Amino acid sequence: MVEIRKLKTAKLMKKVMADHFYEIDAAMKAGNPKVAWCTSVGPAELLRAMGFVVYFPENHAAILGATRTATDYIPVANAIGYSPEICSYLTADVGAYLKGFTPLAKIYDGIETIPKPDVLVYNTNQCRDVKDWFEWYARRWNVPCLGIESYVNVGEVTETHVQGIAGQFKKLADDLTAATGNKLDMDKLAETVWLSRKCSDLWKEVLEMATHKPSPLTFFDGTIHMGPAVVMRGTQVAIDYYETLLEELRGWVAEGVAAVPGEKFRIYWEGMPIWGKLRENAELFLRLKTAVVASTYCNSWIFTALDGNDPWNSMARAYTELFIVRDDDYKEEYFIKMKELFDYDGVIFHDAKTCPNNSNCRYGLPQRLQEKAGVPFVTIDGDLNDLRCYSEEQAITKIEAFIEQLGERQ
Ligand code: SF4
Predict the structure, then answer these.
(1) Average pLDDT, stretch 150-164?
(2) If you classify domain 9-186 with CATH, what class do you get?
(3) Residue 386: CB within 6 Å of ligand 1?
(4) 398: CA distance to ligand 1 center in Å?
(5) Residue-wise pLDDT tens digits, 356-379
(6) Segments making up each domain of the chain, as ranges
């Protein structure tokens, strides 16, 4: 059997992520710097510029999923009234906390718990669940919970949107000072926004290495290597990481090394990863000589609007321009643009049971895309973290049939 090719930079990733968690753990234990929790597309730049170390619970919830422990803890949150229908990041994370479990304690010597925050900060640009999630902890620990209430289903991002969100960002800075005493340094904010922008540009370049044929990386590599873009954007560490990764990927492209040897088909993955089945899915596509070359999910941490010369407005624009915030007309055009860029043969829509926000197959979009741009698609039912919602056998059958159909079209 052909083995999954691993990028050497994956070793550096382990170190970078370990340093990240140890830094937050040390801050929590010392009580300095203060710890802020942040949603994955929340105001990380602002928090760093105000001197917080930043922890991302969605990353923790994804680790629960990837280590296949999430499904054990979801029922614990269900039992206190958090429905099995809502975000399984939320339910896995809250359930694990209630049972005193964190995979971080298994992975990192000396870390015993998730870090207790001094403040919890959300942006509802992705969903309401993040706010509900943070409010649960806020009540539990009597810690302030602040945030930005975003627009949803946005077509064109207008100045009205930008001004509205920029105003909330400024108020959030004042509220954070009132709640924690940490003050904003505007020079630091400009610098952090630039660092974040640089990280985003490099991450974009990494993902676009998959435009090469054969592709040197797949969606499954992307879900691993995106770590620094999510949890360390706004730091030099993330920039250094992606420079190293890019160098290795450029080498692979120069030598014609394929992530999927004998690449025959190229696929776009739409929706959340199935964290507990990453390896199995990577192996399935390897066997089918199919490279999953692009995804909305990995692209979600590209923030090309960020501009250190205009931090407030550019942060507001960057966090409102996100795919997840946009309406279906925008999304259709986006898929077509991605087809031109990555030259994919078809789209797999993952209908994640507990995340309607990242499941774009529920309002006829795949059918419209097929009609408009001739893009073949298949939909699979599953979930990001709750493996009880994923019928592996059915998904494999659907994917195999889909690839066979793509073969008939060639
Ligand atoms: S976007 Fe989906 S997966 Fe992410 S926090 Fe919201 S509901 Fe959960």
Answers:
(1) 97
(2) alpha beta
(3) no
(4) 25
(5) 999 999 999 999 999 999 999 999
(6) 9-186, 188-409
